[in-house]
Structures are given as structure tokens and as C-alpha cells.
Specification:
By secondary structure, this protein is mostly beta strands. Helix content is 3%, strand content 43%. The strands form 10 sheets. Strands 2, 5, 6, 8, 9 and 10 form a 6-stranded mixed beta sheet that branches.
């Protein structure tokens, strides 16, 4: 229903209309249009998403048509004090993870344009796949940890003792920066500097003061501000930010460097500063260290020549012993043999060699360092890493080529077929380009440039993570496992060297 307007209101409307007409010149001329907003400058290069590890510096940039503009950057919609140029650089820290950044560009004429918001991704870990004896771990750029394979000792950290045929997320209380896998236990270093362990514990390898196994991750008491971890079969090492180095677990042959053969159920220090150590490797019964002057040290068992020393009926070294003066860039160990990468760029091995895993053309155990075959790598390739397993070895070239040598009963050499005879000179793994590689008991793994993972060899109880128990003599993609890309889609920096002395933390 339309109601009539009272006479008094009609009079008010008429008076107002007359006043407006007089103000505009009686209504006979054209009226002035209301003011309109001034368009801002067009952004020719809007800010793009960024990603970086903690401590890195990332820079957001913008470019706009015209000159004389002023700028204001925003974080999650709040103006950033002092951020008033066409670029904004900031050191990456955990609090910035998934923060949204934008910029307001104001032209000298007053027009304003605000860019879309873009993300900053904080990266916590170099993507990596790590082989234990019969299980494997993977860590993503965002610090998530996955486990698969045998779980009978709780080494998968999933709250039970069951095997997993496919990668399964490990419940940790925060992002991890590093993982390590032993014979039947696992260790993770978190971004906050705490160390978590789980799995077998008969020798105190969990570091919690007991010998009780655990199927769920728990913090190692007393370890804080840790910057590096690694483990052998049943013993472990951690370095702290204060440069102290700690070890714990199995010590049957003096592999903890304590001057005795008593297991340690909790971490104990060793007389070395982390700043002096460029690389460290833990095998089954021994420990190797490379200092920053390229000297090699070790302690523990030399019964198979794994310390690179001559045979002796007293084959145990209970304290840190210099093994070689100069010439050593990196060291690795897994079982009862050791490998070195020399400063000359060549690989050397010593120790158990019954399956040709030293790649020296023989199956003779060596009590001294012998050259290893790199015949499987393309001519002129720079050797990046030597990766020992239980009875086989992988060679990773600087351009991503991979070669293998040693035991091949389950196809762990990745040559396309399993063989009952061992290979004593390295051969190329055709068609494989890798950023990183790892070897276990009779299984092998490689991280590819697209951050997917391939595995090959022995697959009982799902060791290869492909959802089956079928052995694979050729590299096979683990379905659904990607250690990236990060949500922003920014390319991930290549993995670091694995040595203690060159961690980002």
C-alpha cells in the first residue's frame, strides 16, 4: 500500500529542491558530475610467493607502470613499519610459515593499487630418504616424516609393531629437520632442537635411560639445542649448538669412544668440538670422523678392517684414534665396511668385501684403503657421494648419475635383474638421475629431482614402500610419496652435503 506524503513534508521537499536549483544556477546550465576515484598504477610485476630455510633471506618485489610511486608492505593485512620501497627483504623464521604478504602502491597523483597476497613457505629440512636395516624413513621440505617397512621393533613409530607396505606419517610434535635410521630404531631431530627416538632399545639406543623398546616417538631426555644427528646399527651421535658432541647406545667394541665397552643408556659426551668435525659416520660396530683439516679419525671395531687399519688380534680401539693424515673429504659406513671420498675426488673402501661391495675387483676383505671402481659413472663425472649398504654400494655423480656394485641377489643393484653372482666393478643404473641415494640391508632408494622417490631390491614386508612385497630389480616409483613440492610451488634448493660441519641450523 502506497501512503500519501504529509503536506508539511511536501513543503520541505519543495524548499530543498528550490535551494539546490538556485545553487546550481537556476537549473538552466549543466550540472557538475560527482568526483570519481583515481585508478592506481598497473602492476607490471606483482609480488610472487617465496620459500626459504630458517635463516635464509627472501625478498618480495613489485614493479609498476610510471614513476614517483610510494610503497607500503603488509604482513597478514598489517602494515610493516619501515617497509616502504619497491622490495622487502626479511630473514626467514618459523613464525613466518604461511604468512601472507602484499604491497600497496600509491601514485603521486593519488591513485592506489594493492597487490594480491602471496605466501611465504618456511622450509625445515632438505628432502631425503634414509634407509635403516629393514625399514626406511623419508622427510619432506616441510619437516614431515614418513616410515615404512618392517615394524617388529616399533621402529616405524606408529604405535604398534606392524609392518607398513606404504609410507605412513610418523606423529611428531613439530616439524623435523633431520632423520636417521638404524638396525631397528629411528631418530628424528626437531626444528626446536629436541631429539626424538623410537624402536628397539636392548642396548640403550633410544637414550632414555632404559632398555625398553618403544613403538612411539619420545624425546631423548637431556638433549636440547641439538643441530645434528646420525646413527649406526645400534649407537647414535648428536651435536649441540654449544659445540659439544654426544653418543649413546651399543658399545660392545668401544664405538662410543669412552675408553671402555659398556653400553650407555643415556647420552655421554666425547672429547671433540663439533666445529672441528666436517663429517661423521657410524657403522655397525665402529665410528668414523673427518676433521676440518681432512684428517680421518675413528674408534670401535676393526675386526674386518672397517677402520682402515692393518689386521691385529686386538682389533678394538676404545678411544678416538687418528687413522689417516689428510686427504679425506667425507666418510660413510653402514655395516662392517667403510668408504671414503678423497680430496682427490676418488672413492676408497676398507673392510668386509665378501660380496664385492668395495668395488675393487675382488671379494677379499681389506685391512686398508683400496680404490673403488667408478666405471659405472659416465666418463668425466664428478663423484658426489659414496653410499654403503649392508653388502652393496651406490655411487652418486654430481650430475645425478647412479652406479652400483656388490651383492645383487634381490636386485638391489638396480640393473634390471637379480643375479646370484656379485658384481665387483660398478655398473650404471640406466635411466636414473638422482639428487640423493641411500642403501639398506638389501634395498636401495633414490630421491629424484622432482622430489619423488624410487626404490629397488628386497621388498619383504614392504621395505620398498610400493604397496607390495614384490622384489624390484629396477628402480620403481613409490606411489603417492612426494617430498615436495612445497605449497607455494617455489623450486626447492638442492640438498646440502650431509656432513656435520655444514648443516644449515
Amino acid at each position: 500500500m502506497i501512503r500519501s506524503v504529509p503536506a508539511s513534508l511536501r513543503l520541505c521537499f519543495a524548499s530543498a529542491a528550490l535551494a539546490l536549483a538556485l545553487a546550481c544556477g537556476g537549473g538552466s546550465g549543466s550540472s557538475t558530475p560527482p568526483p570519481t576515484s583515481i585508478a592506481g598504477p598497473r602492476l607490471t610485476t606483482p609480488p610472487s610467493a617465496q620459500a626459504g630455510y630458517r635463516g635464509d633471506v627472501v625478498t618480495f618485489r613489485v614493479a609498476a607502470e610510471g614513476t614517483g610511486h610510494s610503497y607500503q608492505w603488509f604482513r597478514n593485512g598489517t602494515a610493516i613499519a619501515g617497509a616502504a620501497t619497491d622490495s622487502y627483504a626479511l630473514p626467514v623464521q618459523a613464525a613466518d610459515d604461511q604468512a601472507r604478504y602484499s604491497v600497496r602502491v600509491t601514485a603521486s597523483t593519488g591513485g592506489v593499487t594493492t597487490s594480491p597476497e602471496v605466501l611465504l613457505d618456511v622450509l625445515y629440512a632438505d628432502p631425503a630418504v634414509v634407509a635403516g636395516h629393514d625399514h626406511a624413513l623419508a622427510i619432506t621440505t616441510k619437516g614431515r616424516v614418513y616410515a615404512w617397512g618392517v615394524g617388529g621393533n616399533g621402529q616405524l613409530g606408529l604405535g604398534d609393531y606392524q609392518a607398513r607396505m606404504a609410507p605412513t606419517a610418523v606423529p611428531l610434535p613439530g616439524p623435523a629437520v633431520q632423520v636417521a635410521a638404524g638396525w631397528g630404531h629411528s631418530v628424528a631431530l626437531l626444528a626446536d632442537g629436541r631429539v626424538f627416538s623410537w624402536g628397539a632399545n636392548t642396548s640403550g639406543q633410544l637414550g632414555n635411560g632404559t632398555t625398553t623398546m618403544s613403538n612411539s616417538p619420545a624425546a631423548v631426555p637431556g638433549l636440547a639445542s641439538v643441530v645434528y644427528i646420525t646413527c649406526g646399527y645400534n649407537h647414535n651421535l648428536a651435536a649441540k649448538a654449544d659445540q659439544s658432541v654426544w653418543m649413546w647406545g651399543y658399545n660392545s667394541h668401544g664405538q662410543l669412544g669412552q675408553g671402555d665397552k659398556t653400553n650407555r643408556l643415556s647420552p655421554v659426551s666425547i672429547p671433540v668440538a663439533a666445529s672441528q668435525v666436517a663429517d661423521v659416520a657410524l657403522g655397525e660396530l665402529h665410528t668414523l670422523m673427518v676433521d676440518t683439516s681432512n684428517n680421518l679419525y675413528g674408534f670401535g671395531d676393526n675386526g674386518y678392517g672397517q677402520l682402515g687399519l692393518p689386521y691385529s688380534p686386538t682389533a678394538e680401539y676404545l678411544t678416538i684414534t687418528q687413522l689417516q693424515s689428510g686427504g679425506v673429504k667425507a666418510a660413510r659406513a653402514f655395516s662392517l665396511y667403510s668408504v671414503l671420498l678423497g680430496t682427490d675426488g676418488l672413492p676408497y673402501g676398507s673392510g668386509e668385501n665378501g660380496y664385492g661391495q668395495l668395488g675393487d675387483g675382488s671379494q677379499v676383505t681389506r685391512y686398508g684403503w683400496v680404490p673403488m671402481s667408478t666405471a659405472g659413472l659416465p666418463s668425466g663425472t664428478t663423484l658426489d657421494r659414496v653410499v654403503p649398504g649392508q653388502y652393496h654400494t651406490l655411487f652418486l655423480g654430481g650430475q645425478g648419475a647412479v652406479a652400483s656394485v656388490g651383492y645383487n641377489w634381490y636386485g638391489q643393484l638396480g640393473l634390471g635383474s637379480a643375479t646370484t653372482t656379485s658384481t665387483t666393478a660398478s655398473q650404471a643404473i640406466a635411466g636414473l638421475t638422482a639428487l640423493q641415494a641411500s642403501s639398506g640391508y638389501c634395498s636401495s632408494y633414490a630421491l629424484l629431482p622432482d622430489l619423488t622417490v624410487k626404490a629397488w631390491g628386497y621388498n619383504n614386508n614392504g621395505r620398498l614402500g610400493d604397496g607390495t612385497a614384490t622384489d624390484r630389480p629396477s628402480p620403481t616409483t613409490i606411489p603417492g610419496l612426494s617430498l615436495g613440492p612445497i605449497p607455494t610451488g617455489v623450486p626447492v634448493p638442492p640438498p646440502r652435503s650431509e656432513g656435520l660441519g655444514v648443516t644449515r641450523l
